[in-house]
Amino acid sequence: MLNKILSPFGAVVLFVIIAASGYFVSEKMDKKDVNISTAELFATTLPDENGVPQALSQWQGKMIVLNFWATWCPPCREEMPELSELNTEYQDKNVIVIGIALDEIALIKEFNAENKMSYPLLAAEDTGGNLAANLGNNKSALPYTVIIKPDGTVANTYFGRISKPLLEEALLKLIP
Amino acid sequence: MLRRFSALVVSISALLIAVTVLGFAANSYAGNSGFNAFTDSDEEKFLHPDEAFKLNIVAKDSNTLEAKFTVTPGYYLYKDRIKFEIKDASLGTISAVNLPAGDIKDDPNFGQQEVYHHDFVALIDVNNPAQNVVIDARFQGCSEKGLCYAPQLKTLNVDMAQAATAPTDNTPVTNANNSTSSEDEATSLLKSGKLWLIAAGFFGFGLLLSFTPCVLPMIPILSGIIVGDKKAHKAETSRLHSFNLSLAYVLGIALSYTIAGIAAGLSGQLLSNALQSPWMLTATALIFVVLSFSMFGFYELRLPSTIEERMVKTSNKLKGGQFIGVFVMGVISALIVSPCVAAPLAGALLYISQTRDVVLGGVALFALSIGMGVPLLLIGASAGHVLPKAGGWMTAVRNLFGVIMLAVAIFIVSPIIPTSVEMLLWSALLIIPAVYLHALDSLPLDINTGRSHPWMRFWKGIGIMLLIVGIALLIGAVSGAKSPLQPLAGLSLSNSKTIENRLPFVRVKNTAELDARIDAAKGKIVMLDFYADWCTSCKEMELLTFSDPAVQASLKEAVLLEADVTANTPEDLALLQRFNLFGPPGIIFFNRTGQEIKPIRVIGYENAPKFLATVNRVNALKADECNPLVTC
User: Fold this and answer.
1) What domain count does chain A have?
2) Partners of residue B588 on adjacent β-strands
């Protein structure tokens, strides 16, 4: 009787069910719930390339493309001209790009003297990692880009090298 | 609806495979093998820095520390950013750090940089080291896919007394900067809970194995021991005692398997990159197929009978009743029985060698053997009164293993075979078991009731589901569907006529040929596509993006070159190196004066609209422009 019930390949299905549930459990454990919040960001004041303190709250209410970078990060440097271009093209649509560097002020100044970005570059050598982590960067990876909507909620996050078309695609969906 | 359902079932079968090889960890290792066909979200593409780079420091001799760096393929560390420091001078001072020569990487911003793409060892000379040296290690690296990690700080505790004896005895020290806290391999796996998941998975796998007839030869051996023990004591021994005896026996078996697991982990570490080559993937899949045939009973895997007899004799000579003797007997009987479980065992070992993790290998195989030993422990606990009955269901479990192993084989080769062949294989694997589940014939009737058994009806229902999905896949295979997850996509009208039009690529074999082609194409945009047969995203690009009429139109004026680097010849490598590419996929554009447009590179899969936007940007550039803002 027993062998009839468990006909040869019937057990396959059973195993599939066990396997699938196991997988979903492990999947769930993998995705630790990260509380993404911009509260800390807007409460922060960071020096710009000239050392002048800039409160991030001044840009609250805009569509912010927040880009974490560093001068020692080749893919960051590679994508920044595109961000600069994006900032120029979209500034009249209430969009602003902000770069936060995990770097010294002097190095940022040197970089900007050479490359002339159209958007503000702020220095957060020690606190930048934490700021990025609060915005979902659980891998301390750079570049890391976050799109923050005017209401202060995070719309998109990107690990690694991004491109202007990619951001444009996301922005066009968000801009009314 | 049907499509979505079939997608679900196919993905479940994919999961089945992932879990079969107890690949709860398959995700975490997906980045470095061909196994990531089904996990493709952007975030998953990048490893956590702790997984991308691992560091272990041990004492080599009384004055030298050995820092072993493990670098995941596709990632690299900068040589000049590796620093070691002993903060507390009373623990010793670093006199010299010897780093091996690295690979030269041309960086547009920093010039030539020495980097490490592979595992390497740094030697650190320490003056007057204390018994325990607390050392800070700093390093910084990137992924070739365009992402860098913040500088990492690891604080490790090295026991100088353990020079060259204990290889992995680093006690991690809690670190102020907790985002980059120190962990050695095992603890990070433990922390993530994955090691336990894997161990639990292997335990379940072992438990399943114990329902195969393989365990049967062990039962007389074990009950012999327990009965012999009873006779020796001339009295009823306690259940606890006989349980302990069977535990000793099972632990003996576990020892054999654990050694096998560690060996597999080590061999994988040695073979490293070779395991990911198309040849290796094919060979591995073939082994799985051969092993599955033994599960279906086409042939019997066993040791030569002379060796087996000798081992049985030796084990009989050992006196029962004594724990050490029983333990040794366990070690030996694992060897006797192994050929029977060899197929699934070899599967598990292959999986471990792919992960290249020694600790994981040992733990996993230990869990597996304990799982296998559960029925033996039950026999012990019942003092030999309860014995499992063999039956047809044992063969069913064996056949199940056969199917699973075939699924693994398909999964392994899926990146290197055409999608239609892959779908054909999946459909066969679904339809044939469905036939066995009586999906096509009427159910046999029970003599007593004149009706079929409810359970058989249930299995038939499942069988019919498998059959339908199998047929959907079969239709997909012959109608040119592009993905096993959407087997019927080719039938819908909207995108039915796309496969025929291929882009007219011209092959380039080496850098000289490339230069000549670019030279000849002055005045036109040039697109160079790196391709390889085993590159899944290249194939996706070809099938889904390049076939798009709008994309084709946008590339009409361009010269299209393709470098097929499947063979990985020195010429291929030189081509990749020229563009600092680690491997395909990669699409490079050149402007009308033949200069590379560096900021516009396509690495990885882009869908048609996205790729079209990229091409339009290239087309919009002025003749000698390489970048909208920076001159070349």
Assistant:
1) 2
2) B528
